[in-house]
């Protein structure tokens, strides 16, 4: 099995590398610390499994996820992130990920997640399944931020972090004008008028930025 591990933190990559070699056999692990390096790997190699973090200083994990599923549909993708799975899991599953796992999970749960998605099944934790069920039964929205598109969500998160239009444009490889358009759209969808209101909404629906 060929695995591509994409995370910008060396310690995380090394830790996962050790765990993968412990719980799996006959594997080859490639590592990328940036989205651009990961794109190069995907363009030149086939991987059975992509283990991908959510947040990077530059580049979009959602874009890499979508590209991978188009380029090599048989590649399984496990999102492995420190961001709160209650807030991000469904967005990435809807975008094509086969599973979502928090970095605080145990070795056993990582093993379970990999076994599950390799068998062509989706992996989400029981807490996420419970929230989905509650949302359906109570006919309430799971998360107001789900109204945003993937790109709008990326722009919103960077705005909340205090980044300006130029910095966001550089991070996501967009023009400042395009960033302004996304900003207008997400403000309209969330019915907020300023950054302070946006931050307040994120504090309500997103506890881990």
Automatic annotation (TrEMBL):
Q: Which residues form a coiled coil?
A: none
- Decide whether keyword DNA-binding is in the record: yes
SUPFAM superfamilies hit by this protein? C-terminal effector domain of the bipartite response regulators (SSF46894), CheY-like (SSF52172)
**Which parts of the sequence belong to the HTH luxR-type domain?**
141-206
UniProt-listed GO biological process terms: phosphorelay signal transduction system; regulation of DNA-templated transcription
Recorded GO terms, molecular function? DNA binding
The highest taxon in the source lineage is: Bacteria
InterPro entries to which the protein is assigned, alphabetical: CheY-like_superfamily (IPR011006), EvgA-like (IPR051015), NreC/VraR/RcsB-like_REC (IPR058245), Sig_transdc_resp-reg_C-effctor (IPR016032), Sig_transdc_resp-reg_receiver (IPR001789), Tscrpt_reg_LuxR_C (IPR000792), WH-like_DNA-bd_sf (IPR036388)
Q: Which UniProt keywords apply?
A: DNA-binding, Phosphoprotein
Q: Which residues carry this modification: 4-aspartylphosphate?
A: 53
Task: Identify the residues that the record assigns to the Response regulatory domain, covering every copy.
Answer: 2-118
Protein name per the record: DNA-binding response regulator
The species this protein was found in? Sinomicrobium pectinilyticum
